[in-house]
Amino acid sequence: MRNRSVTYSPEAAFHALADPTRRAVLDLLRQGIQPAGQIARAFPVSRPAISKHLRLLRRAHLVQEKREGRHRLYQLNPEPLKAVDSWLEQYRVFWQANLNSLKAFVEAEHARETAGSGGGKDTRAKRSRAKE
Where are the alpha helices (DSSP H) in the chain? Predict the structure, then answer.
């Protein structure tokens, strides 16, 4: 067998992950190799519907199929998920920076209010009266 490099399409992975049933199939396969019939029994949809989901997951390289006699066994292939994770990383960085800024702002406001109030309750009462 040839050793060949496989390039995974992030678009195919995103398309496959867009469906909640396909995500649930991947969650099921995290437990290990599963026969197609067992996967189908885990869902309230028809076996042909699950076969279509498995075909799409196979085309996206998110699952691998192995045939043993009449049985088709499926296992998770996490490699294409690296492309998804890479894309998500830029948003993790964005949100972490924004949440850190929000935390710093809230802590600074809290420190300013605590230092300026002396007790807290009087300041809130004063603000209430000032708004009226």
Answer: 10-17, 20-29, 36-41, 47-59, 81-117, 121-131
CATH number listed for the domain at residues 10-78: 1.10.10.10
First-to-final CA distance of the chain = 81
Residues 6+ apart with CB under 8 A from 52: none
**Is residue 29 within 8 Å of 63, Cβ to Cβ?**
yes
Amino acid at 118: G
* Degrees, nearest 5: CA angle 81-85-88: 140
- Give the model confidence (pLDDT) of 26-80 as tens digits: 999 999 999 999 999 999 999 999 999 999 999 999 999 999 999 999 999 999 9
Any idea where the domains of the chain sit in the sequence?
Answer: 10-78, 82-131
